[in-house]
Design a protein that fits this description.
binds zinc ion, single chain, 3% helix, four-stranded antiparallel β-sheet, STEEP-like, mainly beta
């Protein structure tokens, strides 16, 4: 009797990875007064921050290397202000909470939001929990 050798086929896995974008959950952020401010397709803490003021950087325009974030900002625009930076000034067009008028972010171009390449969210300005202080909100620097 010949010996029967059974070989199990090696299956090459061609399973497609689920796309990250389709699985991304929207996050909602509130002002410390409880007003809804921002809905965005990622966690703010996962985004890069500016060296100069630790603001969170939200990309509004697609570039060669990075996709624009999908988000909606609920804020009123305030007067532009000038900030002194090393070797010059920086103009910031501020966005304010529509209820308590606390500044929550800014961009370098005049409103509306997304008119420039980036939107910046001030550190400690927003929280994911309505009615709860964001981490770092009371830090004195
Ligand atoms: Zn507010």
């Amino acid at each position: 009797m010949p010996k029967v050798v059974s070989r199990s086929a090696v299956s090459s896995s061609t399973d497609a990875q689920p796309t990250a974008s389709s699985a991304a959950a929207l996050r909602v952020y509130y002002c410390i007064c409880g007003e809804f401010i921002l809905v965005i397709d990622t966690n703010l803490s996962a985004l890069p921050r500016r060296q100069s003021d630790q603001s969170t950087i939200i990309r509004c325009r697609e570039s060669d290397t990075a996709a624009a974030r999908v988000f909606k900002l609920n804020a009123t625009s305030g007067d532009p202000i000038l900030i002194e930076r090393n070797g010059g000034h920086e103009r910031q067009y501020r966005f304010l909470c529509p209820r308590c008028t606390l500044p929550i972010g800014y961009q370098s171009t005049s409103p509306p939001v997304k008119s420039g390449p980036f939107l910046y969210i001030l550190p400690g300005a927003l929280t994911q929990m309505q009615g709860q202080l964001p981490q770092g909100a009371l830090d004195d620097e």
